[in-house]
């Protein structure tokens, strides 16, 4: 947490607090967080849960990501669950189809996505959504091209998802944390793309040199064919 | 007209003014990055100064970050432009195509940053003079030295944007654009690293990055294992190796650290 608190935060600027009128408890923690060394992620999450008061009712079968920063972290956790499950499957079933360098890449991707998933789960604690049921029936694990193009879909989608969700986060520390993960996803995406066709590493960028940024609803729609569990993003920040 | 009358007047026109002001972030959202200027111009000075006090600092911070990013993008654009022009440096066709693609993105980033700074009524810094040969004299004759510096610049770019993102949290439009550049820099970095036979990701404090001592500051702190509230992130789940735990997270660089790296080329 020390690392997070070292991040310069505009929201730590006390000079304008008086102008903001009655402060919600959540916001108080944001301001307090900039100086209070004892603030923990857990505390931030607990305070975020104050937003849950106005939750929309959902189908009991459906996993609701929640609201506020917690909801965004659960959204990231859902995507990381999908990626981690995918590379675990690739390594378990298809590793011998790849050359030595590619095998290391697949092992590293399995490790990186696994630690992203387990880290987010630990950070979310009791606010974490349950394990999702995945569906990779559309993937041919005996076909290198099928494996790599699915990986490309996941990695590019992950990058666009984090890029789009950044602005929805309220906590500067969590924004940094998401930033630490998204650039690694972009590295994965580039390497996978190059394995499919060398030189395509950054072909996602538009004429302004910008990668896509997608909103949660669109991302979840794109990921839906691979996730059996129904997910609701209804309470995420817009 | 005193300030309370003004707020009262605004309240009549916009009953939600207080909820709009519940945080600077939301105020930015409702006013929009360009609309904010127009709104400020249209309201009397007294209220303008209130807004200035509440929001002005973040606007100047945004401009500062954008100019900081512009300097790095100038550096990258200049570096690749010169490298592509250096005779006999990049001879392989595939490598050349990749470098041309990267150069094109960096040039687009320069244009975009200049336009954004101007749209916020700021002044873009002019392009500094860079001296890539200052510490690496064979940079434009030795292909491997060129690639080493390219990797260092891209990895620095990734870490620099990451370090500044929190300073943009109040301006959604600029933050998103910065993140969209950030991930493109990471894609470049991964490709250049692979061109050098390295992994696409950074393990430890440059353990797998293969750079000379002079470029080590680029990887300072990348061996961090503390993420969020977790002291050693490798302990989560069933446990992970240090290589996986450091490779899975890129770390931010401060402005000062970036300035130190850039000074090697000024």
UniProtKB/TrEMBL annotation, chain A:
InterPro entries membership: Ferritin-like_SF
Its domain of life reads Bacteria
Which CDD domains does the record match to this protein? Ferritin_like
Q: Which Pfam families match?
A: Ferritin_2 (PF13668)
Record protein name field: Tat (Twin-arginine translocation) pathway signal sequence containing protein
TrEMBL record, chain B:
Pfam families with a match to the protein in the record: Ferritin_2 (PF13668)
List the InterPro entries.
Answer: Ferritin-like (IPR012347), Ferritin-like_SF (IPR009078)
| SUPFAM superfamilies attached to this UniProt entry | Ferritin-like
Residues that span the membrane, as ranges:
none
Q: What is this protein called?
A: Dessication-associated protein
């Amino acid at each position: 947490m020390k690392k997070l608190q070292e991040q310069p935060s505009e929201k730590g600027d006390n000079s304008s607090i008086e102008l903001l009128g009655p402060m919600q408890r959540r916001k108080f923690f944001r301001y307090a967080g900039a100086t209070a060394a004892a603030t923990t992620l857990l505390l931030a999450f607990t305070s975020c849960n104050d937003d849950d008061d106005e939750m929309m009712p959902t189908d009991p079968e459906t996993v609701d990501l929640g609201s506020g920063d917690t909801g965004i972290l659960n959204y990231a956790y859902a995507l990381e669950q999908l990626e981690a499950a995918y590379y675990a499957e690739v390594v378990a079933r298809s590793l011998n189809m790849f050359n030595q360098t590619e095998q290391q890449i697949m092992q590293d991707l399995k490790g990186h996505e696994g630690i992203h998933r387990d880290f987010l789960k630990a950070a979310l604690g009791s606010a974490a959504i349950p394990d999702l049921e995945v569906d990779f029936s559309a993937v041919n694990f005996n076909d290198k091209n099928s494996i790599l193009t699915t990986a490309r879909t996941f990695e590019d989608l992950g990058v666009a998802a984090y890029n789009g969700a950044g602005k929805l986060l309220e906590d500067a520390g969590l924004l940094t944390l998401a930033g630490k993960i998204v650039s690694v996803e972009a590295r994965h995406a580039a390497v996978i793309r190059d394995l499919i066709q060398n030189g395509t590493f950054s072909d996602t960028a538009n004429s302004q040199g910008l990668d896509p940024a997608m909103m949660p609803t669109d991302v979840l729609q794109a990921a839906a064919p691979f996730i059996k569990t129904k997910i609701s993003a209804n309470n995420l920040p817009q | 007209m005193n300030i309370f009358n003004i707020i009262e007047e605004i309240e009549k026109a916009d009953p939600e003014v207080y909820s709009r002001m519940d945080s600077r972030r939301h105020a930015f959202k409702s006013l929009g990055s360009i609309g904010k200027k127009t709104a400020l111009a249209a309201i009397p000075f007294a209220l303008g100064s209130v807004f200035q006090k509440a929001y002005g600092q973040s606007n100047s911070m945004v401009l500062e970050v954008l100019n900081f990013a512009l300097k790095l993008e100038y550096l990258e654009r200049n570096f690749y432009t010169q490298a592509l022009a250096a005779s006999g440096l990049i001879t392989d066709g595939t490598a050349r195509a990749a470098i041309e693609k990267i150069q094109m993105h960096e040039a687009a980033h320069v244009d975009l940053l200049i336009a954004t700074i101007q749209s916020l009524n700021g002044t873009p810094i002019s392009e500094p003079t860079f001296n890539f040969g200052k510490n690496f004299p064979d940079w434009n004759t030795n292909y491997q030295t060129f690639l080493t510096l390219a990797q260092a610049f891209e990895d620095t770019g990734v870490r620099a944007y990451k370090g500044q993102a929190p300073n943009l949290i109040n301006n959604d439009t600029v933050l998103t654009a910065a993140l969209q550049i950030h991930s493109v820099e990471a894609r470049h970095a991964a490709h250049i690293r692979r061109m050098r036979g390295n992994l696409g990701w950074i393990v430890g404090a440059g353990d797998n990055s293969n750079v000379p001592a002079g470029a080590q500051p680029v990887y300072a702190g990348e061996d961090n294992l503390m993420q969020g509230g977790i002291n050693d992130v490798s302990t989560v789940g069933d446990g992970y190796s240090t290589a996986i735990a450091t490779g899975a997270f890129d770390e931010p660089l401060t402005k000062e650290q970036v300035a130190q790296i850039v000074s090697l080329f000024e």
